[in-house]
Each structure stands twice: as C-alpha cells, then as structure tokens.
C-alpha cells in the first residue's frame, strides 16, 4: 500500500507545479493588462503626489478621468485631491455627477455617497453631511461614518447626540471614549449652569464622573456650583478631590480654595493647605498663588522667606522676581537699587507663561479643556510652560 501511495504522489506532484505555473502566468497577465489600461496621466498624477505638487496632480488625474470615465477609483482620487486643496465645490459636483449614473451597483453608490458625505463635511455643510453619513448602510462605512458624525456633533455642540454616538463608536471599535464622553456631560452641565438650572447641572456632572472617575473638570464645576450657592465647605471638599484624581490640576483651583476659606473666615487654614500641596507636588502655579496669599496675609517678610526658600530649592527668574518684589515692599530690607534689579529681571523674563497643546502645538494664555485649534480634549497640560509672548500672539492671530 505504501508503494502505491508514493507512486501516485509522484504522478500528482508535477501536476500541482504545472497548475501553479499556469495560475501565476494568468495573474501576471491580468496585472499587466490592468496596468496597461490605466491612462499615462494616472501615473503622472502619482508622481506629482509623491513630489507634493498637488496642483499638477489635480490636472493629471482630471486628464486621466477624461481618458477613462468609468473608473470610480480615479474619480475618488481626484475628489480627495479637491478636498485637500480646498476645492470642495468641485469635489461635490464630481460625486453628484457620479451618483446620476444609472449603471452603478448598490455597493458603488454607497461608496460614492461616502465620498460625497466627506465633501459636505469638509465644506462645512454639516446638515447634508449628517444626512448622508446616517444613510450609509454598508457595514464597511459604519465606524468612519460614526467618527464623522461625532465630529459634526461636537462642532455643532449637540452634546446629547455626541454622547450617544461616542458610546456606539466605543462599542464597535473597542477604543475608549470615556474622557470625551465625560467632557460632553460637562458641556451639558455648563449649559445648565448658565441657565441657573442647578439640579440639572449636578445630574450632568454626576454623569460625567460616572463616565470617567478621573474627570477633573467635573469636580472643578461641582465646587464652582457649591461656592456660587454659598456652600463653601462643600465646594472645598469637591476641589480637594482633585488631589486623588490628577493632582497636577490643583493649580487651577488654588485661588478658588483660598476665596472659599476666606468666606469661611479661615484663610490661614487655606494657606496651610496650599503650602502642603506646593511642598508635595512642587507645581509652579500653586507656589505663585501661595506667594500672593502669603504676601497679602502675612506681609512681605514672610513672602520673601517663602520665595527665598523656593529659590534655593529650584532657582528661577520668576521666583527671583517675587523675592525682589517682597524685599522692595519690606521697609526693613535696605537693599540699594532693588527696584532697578526687579525691573531688569522682569524685562529679561517678560510674560512667557503659556499652555501648549500636545496635539497641535497651539499656545494659549488661559487653560482650555478643549483645544481651540484642533478640538482635542484635555490636550493642554495643567501647568503652563514658558513661551515668548511675541510667538504666542502670532500663533493666536
């Protein structure tokens, strides 16, 4: 039996090689046929794209389409180029004309509608884009459509729809959107706060913390809400929770904590609390608030000692400026030309504190939970870093 098996195997093996050789010949022949049917302008367009000459690439792909009007891929490539170059009206017309072709299959129509929806989104025609993205039934487009819809709802500030869409996108993609969903709830809370609907605002902030227990903004707003209502002890309690979420954000509520302690006639306790935070986490923003509070409450001598100790621990021109400021205000300190020294330091450092978005590099003087440039959430660091005011002004213009 084994001899018979080996004999047939030897007969069949060459047949397998022959069939494989024929299949390879057929694939190569088909590939060559497909490549020769593509217009030369198509390859010119690719070369222009590689060399980043988008204007010439548009011309080349337009020429290729005239030579091969039935190629959807060429139309899509040209439409994408139109979007990238800002010619969204031409992209829209291109894809609308494609939809009028009766010979398109159902799958092809879905593909064209997906491209047209992108055109509308790029053009800022959000209503039309939303309608098309919702109409896409092909599962291939479900996740991209949800991502686009989420972008639309965020831009249009339709936060309830954004929460629903992000939740569905999270389920399908497996990518967490907890941080974003919590921020959407915070935006809803802000709307209620403006309208003085405090109960609804509290419910929205609770929902934010349910979505993301580390949502610092929710506790910041909870504290603001209680402080506005005169419940300063409760407000301080909410702000103190930030230490157990992300302590680097404590600088955002340091002034608020002091004001609430002052409202409770207990400012010294607030200063002690900030001293503990500043020593533990060594945040420049915390030290700045602590310095100003010490100067106002305990006088220039105490503020000077605080600044001097900080300067020994971590030398910086800003802390030196604070030390000179306190010495200049202290009548006991007989330092000649101290104001001139202070002015020299201030001229050297200027006003350089800025928040830098870690997604797009946008610089802002004030903290934003959402970057005004790229719309990313919590992309600005909690602590400002140094940036020349001149550069920041140019960027913001």
Strand content: under 5%
Q: Give the overall shape, derived from the CA principal axes.
A: elongated
How far apart the termini lie comes to 87 Å
CATH class of the largest domain: Mainly Alpha
Examine the secondary-structure arrangement and name the CATH architecture of the largest domain.
Alpha Horseshoe
**Largest sheet properties:** 3 strands, antiparallel
Strand and helix order: HHHHHHHHHHHHHHHHHHHEEEH
Number of strands: 3
CATH superfamily of the largest domain: Tetratricopeptide repeat domain
What is the typical, i.e. mean, pLDDT? 81
DSSP helix count?
20
Helix content: over 70%
The name CATH uses for the topology of the largest domain is Serine Threonine Protein Phosphatase 5, Tetratricopeptide repeat
Rg, rounded, reads: 32 Å
Oligomer: single chain
Overall structural class, as computed from helix and strand content, comes to: mainly alpha
- Integer count of domains: 4
Spatial strand order of the main sheet: 2-1-3
Report low-confidence residues grouped into runs of 5 or more.
Answer: 1-5, 7-19, 21-37, 41-51, 387-397
């Amino acid at each position: 039996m084994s001899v018979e098996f080996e004999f047939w195997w030897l007969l069949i093996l060459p047949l397998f090689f022959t069939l494989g050789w024929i299949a390879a010949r057929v694939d190569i022949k088909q590939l060559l046929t497909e490549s020769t049917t593509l217009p030369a302008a198509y390859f010119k367009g690719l070369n222009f794209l590689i060399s980043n000459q988008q204007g010439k690439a548009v011309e080349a792909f337009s020429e290729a389409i005239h030579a091969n009007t039935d190629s959807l891929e060429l139309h899509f490539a040209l439409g994408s180029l139109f979007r990238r170059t800002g010619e969204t009206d031409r992209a829209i017309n291109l894809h609308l004309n494609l939809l009028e072709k009766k010979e398109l299959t159902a799958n092809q129509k879905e593909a064209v509608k997906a491209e047209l929806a992108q055109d509308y989104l790029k053009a800022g025609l959000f209503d039309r884009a939303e309608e098309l993205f919702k109409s896409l039934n092909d599962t291939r487009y479900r996740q991209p459509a949800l991502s686009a819809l989420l972008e639309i709802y965020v831009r249009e500030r339709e936060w309830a729809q954004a929460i629903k869409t992000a939740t569905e996108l999270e389920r399908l993609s497996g990518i967490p959107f907890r941080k974003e969903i919590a921020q959407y709830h915070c935006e809803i809370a802000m709307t209620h706060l403006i309208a003085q609907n405090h109960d609804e605002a509290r419910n929205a902030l609770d929902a934010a913390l349910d979505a993301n227990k580390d949502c610092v903004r929710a506790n910041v707003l909870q504290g603001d809400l209680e402080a506005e209502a005169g419940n300063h002890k409760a407000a301080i309690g909410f702000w103190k929770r930030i230490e157990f979420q992300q302590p680097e954000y404590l600088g955002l509520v340091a002034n608020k904590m002091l004001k609430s302690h002052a409202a409770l006639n207990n400012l010294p306790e607030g200063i002690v609390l900030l001293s503990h935070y500043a020593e533990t986490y060594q945040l420049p923003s915390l030290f700045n608030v602590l310095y100003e509070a010490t100067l106002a409450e305990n006088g220039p001598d105490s503020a000077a000692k605080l600044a001097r100790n900080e300067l020994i621990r971590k030398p910086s021109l800003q802390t030196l400026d604070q030390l000179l400021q306190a010495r200049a205000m202290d009548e006991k300190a007989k330092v000649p030309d101290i104001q001139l020294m202070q002015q020299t330091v201030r001229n050297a450092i200027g006003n350089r504190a800025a928040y830098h978005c870690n997604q797009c590099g946008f610089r802002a003087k004030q903290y934003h939970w959402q970057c005004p440039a790229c719309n990313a959430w919590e992309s600005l660091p909690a602590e400002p870093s140094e940036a020349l005011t001149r550069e920041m002004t140019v960027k913001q213009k």
